[in-house]
Amino acid sequence: MVAQGAVVVAGIVTASAVAALIGPPLFHDHLLRAGMSASASELAHVEQAYNEASFVSLAVALVIAVLCALGVTWYVAGRLTRPLAVLTAAAHEMGEGNYAARATVSDAGPELASLAEAFNAMAGRLGDAEQTRRRLVGDVAHEMRTPVATLAAYLDGLDDRVVAWDEPTSSLFRSNVERLARLCDDMSAVSRAEEGRLELRRSNVEVRELLETAKREVRSGFSTKGVRLELGQCADARVVADPERVGQVLANLLANALRHTPAGGEVILSATQSGGEVRLVVQDSGEGLEPDQLTHVFERFYRGDAARTRDARGSGVGLTIAKAIAQAHGGRLTVTSPGRGHGATFTLSLPVGS
């Protein structure tokens, strides 16, 4: 309203100045040119009529301008305040922990509509982050509960002398302590990876060497389960990468493929070059993934099937770490799957070396 008032005042002041300073002399000069005598009484009346008409016109214009300014201000302010009130209410709801709050803005113009869309996208990401946090807390507690409960039960048994400290008991304690230590190490690794604090020793390394090393390290596990591991097409290329970290990613992808591929299935390890990147592919013929699972598979502790018993040797963060390692190399890790029962394909893309 202040801005509109300033515009109205500036316009009226300008028009009044023009009418008072420039208008009368011009009007008087034109009357003289029209043949009216400078001493004629009609001249004074005509000029007075001109001044009064100018005053009335400016007064009417001022009233109309003020009314228009009020109307425009009311309309524009309403279009601004209503969506802003909706956004404010949604922000307050989010502040109270309701991450499902959304702002619906339909008639506020493209700028506020874009703001509302950005707000809703932020709310969605915060909601996903909160769900991940809750699942993380619950899953960490779940992962720790079993070994802690086992150790506590055996400690009670040792105190009551119903359990003897022998080799099986010692082995059980050792394995559960190692499981807890592995969980702590994995959580620390996830934190470092997501914060970009991974130490990389990059070098130009042959792709075939990476694939063959990864295959050699997991071959015994595949043989034991009865799953074929084949080395498919392998591009004659080099990548700029940390061989140890890339080996960690491939080992994780192969272990994941083995876990979800039944006996008699097949896993193919291959590499292709496309433009300035090399794609290392792990393709299995196992359980596959539903479309809604593809967007969550790299999240910490994500379970595609909540009823599935997790491998006791894993902590559920391997794919999260693998994706962070890929991103630290300036590459990416993606997954595709035709659907349940049709296998999955993980692709690690890395920059081509010289």
Tell me what you see in this structure.
This is Signal transduction histidine-protein kinase/phosphatase MprB. Its cofactor is Mn(2+); Mg(2+). One of its GO terms (molecular function) is kinase activity. The protein is of the alpha+beta class and 354 residues long. It has three domains: 2-95; 111-194, Helix Hairpins (Orthogonal Bundle), CATH 1.10.287; 203-351, Heat Shock Protein 90, CATH 3.30.565.10. The chain is built from eight helices and seven strands; from the N terminus they run H-H-H-H-E-H-E-E-H-E-E-H-H-E-E. It has helices at residues 2-33, 41-95, 109-159, 167-194, 207-225, 243-259, 291-294, 318-328; strands at 203-206, 228-234, 238-241, 266-274, 277-284, 332-336, 345-351. A hairpin with an 8-residue loop joins strand 6 (332-336) and strand 7 (345-351). Helix 1 runs antiparallel to helix 2 (41-95) and helix 5 (207-225) runs parallel beside helix 6.
